[in-house]
Design a protein that fits this description.
Elements (H helix, E strand, L loop, with lengths): L4 E9 L2 E12 L2 E24 L2 E4 L5 E20 L2 E18 L6 E17 L4 E12 L3 H4 L4 E2 L3 E3 L8 E14 L2 E13 L2 E10 L4 E10 L1 E17 L2 E19 L2 E20 L3 E10 L2 E3 L2 E3 L2 E12 L4 E8 L7 E5 L7 E4 L5 E8 L3 H10 L4
Parallel strand pairs: 10-14
Antiparallel strand pairs: 1-3, 2-3, 3-4, 3-5, 5-6, 6-7, 7-8, 8-11, 9-10, 11-12, 12-15, 13-14, 15-16, 16-17, 17-18, 18-21, 19-20, 20-23, 21-22, 22-25, 23-24
Length: 388
């Protein structure tokens, strides 16, 4: 505990929403839907930091602040859907307006920003008589920066500072997908290809800068329109029931991630990696009494802006059973069975090196017991099924 400082944070906020939606079936196989959404979110935040000087707490004016935020969103949309036999076509357009306002205790840091963008989308799906489903879609969306990323007010820490960027622009993303799914007596299998292209990607970056407050070079964090990001690849979903007492789910995602961003004026950084993610879930009932589950997650090398995450995996295991005509239930679970959830992140920033590792030196093990008394508890157990 730090008795040389006294910090007090007081915040209040609310959210007010209004939705209007109208659907008109213009034919037996077609309909038009139109509507509007309104959101208003006011929030007030007051932070006071007092430092002990000469036995008296004195207000730290540079690390204390008062924020009065207002976020207003107004959206209009229209969609048209038409079925032609087994083919379904759907197109839509959204117009999104957003006003972001912040009043500071320092008037020079006040700002009022307005963003507007259009979100077109088109979707097509086709289902065959033999349970084959095909889908094709395209969407262009955009993200706006949150208020904190826009604020030019400097927030000082002990040896660094954070400042927003009021010149942030919209972050546009083009997303195209094509997929196939087949349903059978033993389960289902599906494959989907995707391509995401983002321009003006909004993210936080760390750098070093001279600070007049500290009188030296310190770490500085700010928000930027970092550059362009591309993600492409394919994913597969498989659900397999080889026996009545066993269920297996497999998810595999593999592809390329690439980005190019400007870290300083005239200095661009580019990185690319081919990676994968695998998730495997298995549930089985052994001897008609014991429910067993195993969940595995495997992550290949991943990249984020100016950093790389090394591969790791995680396996959870558990079992449960009912005894004495379901009056008694027992369960046992182990998280991270092999203690392998160790993350390793390496910075790729050209101006400073950073190596971050995180690991656990123990496992989380849980053991539970439930005793049911009365008919209602037994009926509830029958409806819910076994829980892990």
């Amino acid at each position: 505990m730090d008795f040389t400082r006294h910090s007090n944070l007081d915040q209040w906020g609310s959210r007010n929403d209004l939705y209007v939606d109208y659907t008109h079936p213009y034919s037996k196989n077609g309909k038009i839907e139109a509507g509007a959404e309104f959101h208003y979110k006011p929030q007030n935040r007051t932070h006071h930091l007092d430092t002990l000087v000469g036995g008296i707490y004195q207000r730290d004016s540079l690390r204390s602040y008062i924020f009065n935020d207002r976020e207003t969103d107004l959206t209009f949309y229209i969609t048209v859907q038409q079925k032609i036999g087994r083919l379904t076509l759907k197109g839509g357009l959204r117009g999104e307006n957003q006003w972001l306002q912040r009043k500071h205790n320092i008037a020079s840091c006040d700002f009022d920003k307005y963003y507007f963008g259009l979100v077109p989308s088109i979707h097509a799906s086709y289902a065959t008589e033999k349970n084959h489903n095909f889908t094709l879609s395209y969407t262009r969306r955009f993200d706006t920066p949150d208020i904190a990323k826009l604020s030019p007010f400097i927030i000082y820490a002990d040896d660094s500072y954070t400042v927003g960027n009021p010149d942030l622009c919209l972050d546009y993303t083009h997303k195209a997908e094509a997929g196939w799914t087949h349903y059978t007596d033993w389960g289902s299998v599906g494959v989907e290809g995707y391509l995401n292209l983002s321009t003006g990607n909004i993210d936080n970056v760390s750098d070093v800068s001279y600070s007049p407050f500290f009188g030296r070079v310190v770490q500085m964090d700010t928000a930027v329109n970092a550059g362009n990001v591309r993600m492409s690849g394919a994913e597969m979903n498989l659900t397999w029931r080889p026996r009545k007492f066993m269920n297996i789910r497999l998810y595999v995602n593999g592809g390329e991630v690439w980005y190019r961003m400007q870290v300083r004026p005239g200095k661009w950084v580019e990185d690319e990696v081919w990676s994968y993610i695998v998730r495997l879930n298995m549930n089985a009932k052994l001897w008609g009494k014991v429910d067993v589950f195993v969940n595995g997650k495997f992550f290949g090398q991943q990249i984020e802006l100016l950093s790389r995450n090394e591969p790791y995996f995680n396996v959870d295991f558990g079992l449960s059973t009912d005894l004495f005509d379901r009056h008694l239930s027992l369960y046992f679970k182990v998280n991270d069975l092999f203690q392998s959830s160790n993350t390793h992140t390496v910075s790729t920033n050209p101006y400073y090196a950073e190596d971050y590792r995180w690991s656990y030196n123990s496992r989380f093990v849980s053991l539970g017991l439930t005793w049911r008394i009365g008919k209602m508890d037994l009926e509830s157990k029958g409806r819910q099924g076994a829980a892990y």
